[in-house]
């Protein structure tokens, strides 16, 4: 999500209609002591409220423009409350994410001074604190989310209008080129606005990528003149190729979308010196057709076989798009781009359908293999699991984070349910197996301390007061988390006291609640003296996950990163077979991204200004994966060139024109490899320092030897072009053995240590 999507929305409220706030809520603009602006919503105190002897004095909701603490990178807004007890003031923070779920324990602290806070361990009050935060902010947040949905919907409608206009203009792009380009640019502006206000801009970035590719392609098209229409087709093609070449040199054409400064050099590197010509551009339509034929074949496959093939097909289709975004050797038309989008959608639907069938048939091991399609499942799969009380399906959806633990506000059979637990309670009978579903939810960390609307009591209290309740057994099945844990009773009592303090609490209900509080207190004493329970309760994983762990999990699940990871592994496997065994470990280490190290580095960052967003981290990882892939491909090609050149040198004669081209080609390969090494080794602006010093030193050694070999090759070229007929010096041939030994040298350097430990060849990729 955008780090400050909600802030951006509130900040732009005057540009849109229908922005409204609940009664007695006041909006203020504030600036944090760090200089970060934020919005503060003052919330009303409807009644006196006390939690554990702490009396609520005032509270508000804050929405910051950017993070002022590490937790803010997972939070979109937070609730703040101030309490007083025995003349001492305390502060409570409860953090919520973009889905309005709290994702950490409440932060409760004693206020020593304006800038000094001492954390107070009040875990027994956690449930009451989160209940307070939710009820106090619910109406305001609902209005903000409704406003957000309205703004995004209006922008999406504008985008669709422009899309319809582009469809008409595309019927004659030559004639409508100017209007077509303006419409695309306007679409990009609309998408940029959506990104500002959207909690989930991932699909928007995909659209932006398509627009950039389309725009770059259209920019190379010129309206044909009357004279040019009469010329031969071959002449037209030659002119278009020339125009593309000029466009690439300017850095504006589609061919120069990734490393523009190397566009000219790369076109030279594409020269096949052995064949004395530039390799012709491949047909993008042919590449799409090959994937289309594979998709056609997969349509008739059995599900068992398709499960093993569909992931690779999907990544290959996406890989074709990502190749266009970086570097490629294709001639591309607008029709090709349209066909690629159609093919992507087709493969996506094929994968989603396969995953749904696997889940419905309860083939969960097979469904787990379809990782790329997990996030694409519609919400209806959750509703299906609930309606049919599929406990194992719920377990799968929660385990693989397909549905959130706090999934709420859904409709089944025209009835709205505020939570998963509420659905189980309202549909629980002895004949309906809701117990298994609730048991799964509790094991995954769903709380039973939320309020049940009809009784006004926490769900756990309902079960304790009704021993014959159909769901009562869930307490026994999870005794370690509930009835055998003192903290469960302590937290329940704090929530029950909130119920007692409500002015709307009926007298008969007050009597029941008071008796239950006494009963719970008695059980706490019994557990304290007779049962050695482990307090506190185990924390749900979603509350323990650090910022680094969250981001790395997203990176590992990202299809683009997985595509390049698999591509690198395939290329390295091919390259290793051509290298001496001593070089295998070094090249394998060079091509490995250590995600765990990245996670640890993110968690260690103290300067919040240096923490990158997920999109920034992903962009850097992909950029470096592309560099590594290029390095491996160049190394593979260099082996062929070295073998040919070694034979030429042994002849001890003046080089021919073709052999000079061979030298020039190898020289360019080494130059580019040296550039890649520098890009990967550059530590400037490297906040999380994801490169080990000894690996850095090894690559520096490789870079130095590359430079030495480059100088020798340059000297050989110069010598061969002189008028002298002397043969090249025999010792020059020794230089080519040097390049073969580069990775071996790097490997020996990294393994040479006094401790005798295994070499650490990981994490050559860094996040800059």
UniProtKB/TrEMBL annotation:
**Origin organism lineage:** Bacteria, Pseudomonadati, Pseudomonadota, Gammaproteobacteria, Legionellales
Location of region: Disordered: 226-254, 748-768
Q: Which domain of life, per UniProt?
A: Bacteria
From which source organism is this entry? Legionella moravica
UniProt lists compositionally biased (Basic and acidic residues) regions at 228-245
Question: What is this protein identified as?
Answer: Coiled-coil-containing protein
């Amino acid at each position: 999500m955008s780090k400050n999507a909600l802030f951006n929305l509130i900040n732009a409220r005057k540009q849109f209609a229908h922005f409204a706030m609940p009664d007695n809520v006041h909006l203020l603009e504030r600036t944090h002591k760090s200089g970060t602006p934020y919005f503060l919503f003052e919330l009303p105190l409807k009644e006196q409220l006390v939690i554990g002897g702490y009396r609520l004095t005032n509270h508000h909701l804050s929405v910051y423009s950017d993070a002022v603490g590490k937790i803010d990178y997972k939070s979109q807004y937070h609730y703040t409350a101030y309490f007083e007890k025995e003349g001492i003031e305390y502060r409570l923070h409860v953090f919520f994410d973009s889905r309005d779920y709290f994702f950490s324990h409440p932060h409760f602290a004693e206020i020593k001074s304006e800038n000094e806070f001492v954390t107070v361990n009040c875990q027994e009050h956690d449930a009451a604190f989160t209940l307070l935060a939710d009820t106090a902010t619910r109406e305001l947040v609902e209005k903000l989310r409704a406003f957000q949905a309205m703004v995004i919907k209006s922008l999406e409608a504008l985008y669709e209008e422009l899309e319809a206009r582009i469809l008409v203009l595309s019927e004659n792009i030559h004639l409508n080129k100017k209007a077509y380009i303006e419409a695309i640019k306007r679409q990009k502006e609309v998408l940029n606005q959506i990104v500002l206000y959207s909690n989930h801009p991932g699909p928007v970035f995909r659209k932006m990528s398509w627009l950039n590719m389309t725009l770059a392609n259209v920019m190379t098209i010129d309206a044909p003149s009357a004279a040019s229409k009469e010329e031969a087709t071959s002449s037209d093609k030659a002119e278009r190729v020339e125009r593309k070449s000029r466009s690439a040199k300017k850095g504006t054409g589609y061919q120069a979308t990734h490393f523009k400064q190397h566009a000219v050099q790369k076109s030279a590197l594409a020269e096949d010196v052995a064949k004395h010509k530039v390799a012709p551009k491949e047909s993008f339509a042919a590449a799409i057709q090959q994937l289309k034929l594979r998709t056609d074949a997969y349509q008739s496959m059995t599900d068992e076989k398709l499960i093993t093939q569909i992931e690779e097909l999907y990544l290959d289709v996406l890989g074709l798009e990502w190749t266009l975004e970086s570097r490629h050797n294709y001639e591309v038309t607008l029709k090709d781009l349209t066909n690629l989008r159609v093919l992507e959608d087709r493969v996506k639907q094929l994968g989603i359908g396969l995953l749904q069938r696997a889940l419905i048939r309860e083939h969960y091991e097979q469904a787990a293999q379809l990782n790329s399609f997990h996030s694409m499942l519609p919400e209806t799969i959750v509703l299906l699991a609930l309606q049919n009380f599929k406990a194992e399906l719920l377990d799968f959806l929660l385990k693989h984070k397909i549905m959130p633990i706090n999934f709420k506000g859904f409709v089944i059979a025209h009835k709205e349910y505020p939570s998963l637990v509420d659905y189980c309670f309202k549909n629980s009978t002895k004949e309906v197996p809701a117990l298994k579903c609730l048991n799964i939810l509790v094991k995954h960390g769903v709380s039973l301390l939320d309020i049940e609307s009809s009784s006004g009591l926490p769900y756990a209290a309902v079960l304790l007061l009704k021993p014959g309740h159909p769901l009562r057994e869930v307490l026994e099945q999870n005794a370690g988390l509930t009835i055998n844990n003192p903290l469960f009773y302590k937290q329940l009592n704090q929530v029950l006291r909130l119920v007692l303090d409500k002015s709307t609490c009926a007298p008969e209900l007050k009597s029941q609640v008071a008796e239950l509080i006494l009963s719970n207190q008695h059980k706490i004493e019994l557990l304290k003296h007779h049962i050695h329970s482990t307090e506190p309760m185990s924390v749900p994983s979603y509350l323990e996950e650090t910022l680094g762990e969250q981001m790395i999990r997203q990176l590992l699940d990202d299809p683009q990163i997985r595509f390049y990871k698999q591509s690198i592994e395939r290329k390295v496997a091919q390259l290793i077979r051509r290298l001496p065994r001593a070089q295998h470990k070094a090249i394998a280490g060079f091509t490995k991204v250590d995600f765990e190290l990245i996670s640890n580095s993110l968690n260690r960052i103290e300067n919040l200004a240096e923490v990158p967003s997920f999109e920034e981290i992903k962009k850097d990882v992909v950029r470096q994966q592309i560099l590594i892939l290029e390095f491996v491909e160049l190394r593979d090609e260099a082996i062929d060139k070295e073998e040919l050149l070694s034979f030429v040198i042994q002849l001890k004669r003046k080089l021919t024109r073709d052999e000079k081209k061979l030298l020039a080609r190898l020289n360019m390969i080494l130059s580019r490899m040296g550039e890649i090494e520098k890009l990967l080794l550059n530590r400037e602006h490297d906040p999380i320092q994801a490169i080990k010093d000894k690996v850095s030193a090894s690559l520096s050694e490789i870079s130095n030897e590359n430079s030495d070999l480059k100088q020798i090759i340059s000297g050989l070229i110069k010598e061969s072009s002189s008028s002298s007929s002397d043969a090249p010096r025999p010792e020059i041939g020794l230089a080519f053995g040097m390049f073969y030994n580069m990775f071996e040298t790097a490997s020996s350097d990294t393994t040479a240590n006094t401790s005798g430990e295994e070499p650490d060849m990981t994490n050559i990729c860094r996040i800059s």
